[in-house]
Amino acid sequence: MSIDIGITGLAKSGKTTVFNALTRGKADIESPDPHIGIAKVPEPRLQMLANMLHPKQVVPAEARYIDIGAPLKAISGQLLTELSNVDAVINVVRAFTDESIPHTEGSLDVDRDIATTNLELAFSDLAIIERRLGRIETSLKGAKPPERQGLLREQELLMKVKADLEKDVPIRELKLTTGEARTIANYQFLTAKPLLIVVNIGEEQLPQAESLENELNSHYSRPKCRLIALCGKLEMELTQLDNSAAEGFRAEFGMKVSGLDRTIKLSYELLGLISFFSIASGEVKAWSIQDGSDAVIAAGKIHSDMERGFIRAEVIGYDDLMKCGSLAEARKKGLLRLEGKNYIVKDGDVITFLFNV
Ligand SMILES: Nc1nc2c(ncn2[C@@H]2O[C@H](COP(=O)(O)OP(=O)(O)OP(=O)(O)O)[C@@H](O)[C@H]2O)c(=O)[nH]1
Ligand SMILES: [Mg+2]
Fold it and tell me: What confidence tens digit (pLDDT) does each residue in 291-317 have?
């Protein structure tokens, strides 16, 4: 199961351009259909491991990006379900100027457009809440005491969330108890998801990218929300080049790091994900997992058989392995640890699972 990230934003903000850049895809920007693509998660440690272990195959972790392709306020049914299922949302906001592409809102205004999309996300959640409150009202009429209690509790929670949404406070910023969070999670509300704002600047704004980003960040530092400025069009063009040519262009434009790598990395941080590595049958693979997950969950990432038949995990931290220079040396030094089901996987762990089926 990969990580799914939905791309939204106002019309003509550059959603499909950013999608193409992230997934190195060639989706037709004219097509209004949803686009789904895979991005490889940048992880420098994977290459370092490959250099040491000389595997037949090196397989990075993947993230799935979904460009819904339609304005948020117009989506319903299958498209809305698709968006509701994602783990995080990217809001692409237009900052580039181009006379030939009229701005849907008539003028360029990054702050206004961020607010507009936030409002649309909130409207979608409010519609779900209204419907559910209506149904609770009906159910309460014939409900017996135990069921009644549950319904009343849910009603109270939804009213509270609704009041906050109406005050422009997204669900991701609410302080909820574990029980409340579990109830809320069932609804897959859009404003409950981590949000990454991608400010899509023009090529000519690249020299100011950093200062623009810093300035916007100073008033958008909110919980579970990040902001990045990049030039979607240039990033998309760079993906068509080979790595060294792309590096050359980046240097020329004064871009220290790839905007795409930063975007993927920020989505990772937002989602609280860490990487672990598996080495087996000539393959070195990177995997993404929620920070705090145990060894069984990690095994399940790789294969459900490994999760079901989990026996033990043989673990070494990335740094320890690099210091040893080889697995054999690490084994000799006794640095390969055997861990059980409850072991909490750490970022950079190199793991071999022992299992039977
Ligand atoms: N100059 C410039 N043009 C851009 C940039 N990013 C996107 N565009 C152009 O803006 C237009 C809209 O980009 P898309 O990626 O199709 O935007 P979208 O949000 O997917 O549009 P819809 O799906 O139609 O709502 C295209 O003609 C792009 O080439 C940019 O950074 N600079
Ligand atoms: Mg599009």
Answer: 999 999 999 999 999 999 999 999 999
The CA distance from 237 to 294, in Å, is 40
CA of 13 to the centre of ligand 2 (A): 8
CA proximity to 113, closest of 53, 38, 197: 197
- pTM, entire model: 0.90
Nearest CA to ligand 1 atom 21: 12
Residue with tokens 């989990």: 310
Helices (H) and strands (E) in the chain, counts: 14, 12
Q: Is 166 in the pocket of ligand 1 (CB under 6 A)?
A: no
- Among 129, 191, 188, which residue's Cα sits nearest to residue 158? 129
CA of 230 to the centre of ligand 2 (A): 17
Ligand 1: centre distance to CA 265 (Å): 23
For residue 179, the CA-to-ligand 2 centroid distance in Å is 38
- Ligand 1 atom nearest to 201, measured from its CA: 31
Cα separation, 93 vs 103, whole angstroms: 11
Q: How far is the CA of 262 from the centre of ligand 2 (A)?
A: 22
Instruction: Quick: pLDDT tens for 163-186.
Output: 999 999 999 999 999 999 999 999
Check pocket membership of 101 for ligand 1, CB cut-off 6 A.
yes
**What is the phi-psi region of residue 115: left when phi exceeds 0, alpha when psi lies from -120 to 50, beta otherwise?**
alpha
DSSP state for residue 172 in the 8-state scheme: G
Q: 334: buried, middle or exposed (CB in 10 Å: 19+, 13-18, 0-12)?
A: exposed
Question: What is the CB neighbour count within 10 angstroms for residue 54?
Answer: 9
**Ligand 1, atom 16: closest residue by C-alpha:** 29
| Single-letter code of the amino acid located at 122 | A
Tell me the residue type at 59. Answer: V
Read off φ and ψ for residue 313, nearest 5 degrees: -120, 135
**At how many degrees (to 10) do helices 15-23 and 232-239 cross?**
30
Residue whose CA lies nearest to ligand 1 atom number 25? 11
Of all protein residues, whose CA lies closest to atom 5 belonging to ligand 1?
Answer: 233
Report d(CA 229, CA 9) in Å as an integer: 15
**Coarse DSSP helix, strand, coil percentages of the chain, rounded to the nearest 5 percent:** 50, 20, 30
Query: How many whole angstroms separate alpha carbon 198 and alpha carbon 108?
Result: 15
